[in-house]
Amino acid sequence: xxxxxxxxxxxxxxxxxxxxxxxxxxxxxxxxxxxxxxxxxxxxxxxxxxxxxxxxxxxxxxxxxxxxxxxxxxx
Length: 75
Hints:
With about 80 residues, this protein is mostly helical. About 60% of the residues lie in helices and about 10% in strands. It has two helices and two strands.
């Protein structure tokens, strides 16, 4: 995959999760659901997704710095 394709897929991924989060109504936060085989709520699922994204960000920063790339916010 070339850089343009990677950037395109990442942008599409963020648009998808943003749309999913934006579609959750205020009254849906405590709606029960199953995620990864366990009972949770919509709010719990969103917290799980946020934590997962944070892990990806941390790994991206570590990978970039390991390859001599300084993240834009650190310049």
